[in-house]
């Protein structure tokens, strides 16, 4: 097993390295993904509100964002 180097502060006290728990990392990742999902949902909603009649470019833009949203939702399942 690899020995981890301990750090000393200015007063010479030794501080063991801090480890972040797997649950904490998973919770952070999940929160980041949920934030991205909220942003994408708002963007899609804004496009729908602004344009009642949509051009093919706008439809393509909506489809791209909905694909990203779908992928983020699938990724979020990994962190449940």
Features:
80 residues; mainly alpha; two-stranded antiparallel ribbon; 2 helices
Unreliable residue runs: none
Structural class by helix and strand composition: mainly alpha
> Which oligomerization state do the chains in this entry correspond to?
single chain
User: What is the overall number of helices?
Assistant: 2
Estimate the global geometry from the Cα principal axes: elongated
Biggest pleated sheet: 2 strands, antiparallel
User: How much is the radius of gyration in Å?
Assistant: 22 Å
Helix amount, in percent? 55-70%
- The neighbouring-strand order within the major sheet is 1-2
Terminal CA distance: 31 Å
Order of helices and strands: EEHH
What is the residue-mean pLDDT, rounded to a whole number? 81
Give the strand tally: 2
Portion in strands: 5-15%
Q: How do the strands and helices of this protein lay out in sequence?
A:
Layout: E1 7-8, E2 14-15, H1 22-50, H2 56-77
Helix pairs in contact: 1-2
Compact description:
This protein is mainly alpha-helical and 80 residues long. Helices cover 64% and strands 5% of the residues.
């Amino acid at each position: 097993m690899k020995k981890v180097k301990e750090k000393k502060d200015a007063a010479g006290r030794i501080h063991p390295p801090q480890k972040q728990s797997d649950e904490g990392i998973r919770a952070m990742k999940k929160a980041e993904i949920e934030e991205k999902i909220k942003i994408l949902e708002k963007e899609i909603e804004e496009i729908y509100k602004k344009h009642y009649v949509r051009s093919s470019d706008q439809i393509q833009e909506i489809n791209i964002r909905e694909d990203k949203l779908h992928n983020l939702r699938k990724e979020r399942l990994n962190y449940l």
